[in-house]
Amino acid sequence: RNMSSAGPEGRKKMRECEGLIDSLVYYVQGAIADHEPNDKATENCVCILHNLSYQLEIELPESYAQSIYMQRRNISSNDKTPGCFGSRSRKVKEKQQDTPLPEEKSNPRGVESLWHSTLIRIYLSLIAKSTRNYTQEASLGALQNLTAGTGPMPFAVARTVVQKANGLPSIRAMLHVSHPAVKKTAVSLLRNLSRNTSLQSDIAREVLPDLVSILPESVLGSDAACETTASICYALFNLTQSSSHSARLLLSAQGLPKVIAISMNDSNMFSKASRAASVLLYSLWSHTDLHSAYKK
C-alpha cells in the first residue's frame, strides 16, 4: 500500500508486475462473497487499486493504448487520427467521448482489470456494504481517478457507473456521511460523472437535490469544506448549464439562497468556493425562462 503511492515509476512497476492486480481483485471479490467487506486486508487491497488507477489514462504506454481502443466508425482520411492519451482539441474530445471501448474481455488480466466493469461493480459494492471509511474513500477515489480524463475510458467508466451498474444510489448515500474525506471524494466523483452530457439527466434526477442539501447555508469551515463546496457548485453547474429543467430542480430544492450566500463570501480563504458559486449563478441566469422565478 505504501509502495503504490511512490509516484509514477512505482505505479508503472506495480502495474507491470505479473499477477499482482489479479491477486488484489481476487482477494476483494472473495471478501465480498464471504460478506466480510470490513477487514483490514480488503482496505489495503482497495487502497492499492485506488493508487494504481491514478492517472491511468495518461500513464499507459501509447502502444498499449492503441490496442485497447478501437474506432468503431470510419474516420475520413482527412482527419488526423488522434492519439488516445495525447493533447486533444475540442473536436477530438467530442469524437472520443462518442467512441465506446471495445467489447470487454470476459476474463481481464493485469492492468485491463483496473477499468473493467467487474472491478467497477466491486467498488460500488464496497461503497454500499463496507463501514470502514478508508475502504469507502478508496473505492470512491478509484472511481474518481477512472472518470477524471477526457478520453474514451473515463466516459465508458462513467456510463458503467451510472447506467449499467446503477451506482448512483450508493454514491448518493456517501454525500450524507459524517466523514469529511468520504463526502469530499463522493462529490468529486459526481463532478466527474456530471461532465458526461449523456448522463446528466439521470444524475440530476438522482442526486441534484442531495447536492443542494449538503451545500452550506453561508460561511464555510475548513479548507476541505471550501473545496467540497466548490466541487458541489461545479457539479451543479454541469447539471444545470444545458437544462432548464435541472435549474428549476435546483430552485425548488431551495438552492438559490445558498448559492448566493456562498458567492458573496469574498474572504481569501473561501475564494475558490465563492468563485464556483458565482460561475453557477451566471450560468443559472442564462435560463431566461426562469428569471421571474429567480426574482421571486
Automatic annotation (TrEMBL):
Protein name per its UniProtKB record: PKP2 protein
Similarity field: Belongs to the beta-catenin family.
Listed InterPro entries: ARM-like, ARM-type_fold, Armadillo, Plakophilin/d_Catenin
GO cellular component: adherens junction; cytoplasm; intercalated disc; nucleus; plasma membrane
Main location: other
Organism: Atrichornis clamosus
Gene that this polypeptide is encoded by: Pkp2
Location of this chain's protein in the cell: Cell junction
SMART domains from the UniProt entry: ARM
